[in-house]
Amino acid sequence: MRSxxxxxxxxxxxxxxxxxxxxxxxxxxxxxxxxxxxxxxRPDRAKPLIFVLDLEGENISGLDLDVITQALWYSFRxxxxxxxxxxxxxxxxLADRGIALGGGQRPMEEMAAIGRALTADYLxxxxxxxxxxxxxxxxxxxxxxxxxVVGLGNIEAQGELRDxxxxxxxxxxxxxxxxxxxxxxxxxxxxxETVPEVRDTPPPAPREAExxxxxxxx
Length: 218
Prior knowledge:
single chain, 5-stranded mixed β-sheet, 5 strands
């Protein structure tokens, strides 16, 4: 009789342990999803860093497209509201990060990811279309850290390339106004105003006391 007690006691403990362990539930898709990554904080700088990316082109030569991109870069530099890298340094950073642009427009979320990889605050990107002697430029200013597209700079021009380049500051002003920056004052070269022509004026007639005496005849 005594030999049966330890076996019965062990059996009772085993049954109790089985009752206290909850059954395993089947895994769901939620269990396999990775945890959402927090958005990185905006870098603390005296001025925001901006990257002006190469514009996409349609029916336009690569040389003219590069000239337009360069003019846009200089326009933002002249504004004085942003930190900027030289274009060759900017290209080197893109290459170091393994970022290859081109091949058409990309979704805004992908552009924002590129901006964060570059540690930029803002990206400028867009396209240029040429049809004969008509040009159309569509550019966007993207706030990389959650602000989305904060400014659009769309301009058109007809004539020669220099006619379009004169309007680049207008596209810049439209974009940076959306970012909360104050557009710089335009220079005479950026406006249609002309400097009044300066003409030569004849000297005033001498006063009576200064007139030379006239000879008299006897």
